[in-house]
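# step 3/5: fold
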Amino acid sequence: MQKDKLFSIITIICFCSILLLPIGLALMWFMTSWKKKRKLIITIAGTLLYILIVGLLLFIEPSYNTSGVSLPFKYSGGETAFEAPATPGKPSKKDKKTSPKSDKKKKNENDNSDSQDEKLPRSVKKQSGRGLDRSFYVFLFFLVLLILILWRNFRAAGKKQNYENPYLDTKLYKLPLSEDFKPPLVHFLRLKLNAGEKILYATETTQKDNEGDFVVTNQRAVIFNVAGSSEIPLSDLTAALSVSNSVLQLTCGEQKYYVFLPESQMKYALAIVRWAFSKV
């Protein structure tokens, strides 16, 4: 397993654990070869997410209802502590009128009122959990955003990000190329060379359903694909530029040729074409 891929997996594990998110961000910046734009987006989203989690754990207190809520208490008339019998030692008229049935009725009412006291209204419960629900939705949003960014980055990593040129060792090209640059040996046998012609550079092309090769010699640039091949003499070349990270545009008069290359090969192909053109 390659070193960069291993650190990428460790970084994603740190992101998924949430608590190790700062460690994951550090590994992403120093130990992976992800694009800087994606690193910046993940860093911003991850930092906001971590701050939100810390805020939920340390600073947000549960909200209580202080505005007052009318609780469903029932008032049942009866004696108070200040109502004393009319004559001491004798039962009052209220005491005489009470019967066992009325005592049972009062007892049932008291039991009902006690059970209702223990149950709070729904409005109180909803109000106390409203702040936590909002925080959870914000946390869920940042979590989904982070997962989508990681998924897109991991998916793009499988599209030949660590492309290795099968025809030559690109480490032998020291950019920018000097005037006395000596091209290394290129192992490409598909092109039939002319007298005094030498291959300076070769790589695979990545156009979907039209893959092939791109070759630069000291006389011409050749594009091989499924349909056939196209040759561009360097003496007829009027412009060479990169229109994107993976598309090279070669202009010959009014004719334009587009070459789809691996991103890691773009800088070498463009430098070799311009260097070879300057030597024609």
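# step 4/5: annotate
The helical segments are 3-17, 21-31, 36-59, 93-97, 100-118, 122-157, 266-279.
# step 5/5: archive (pending)
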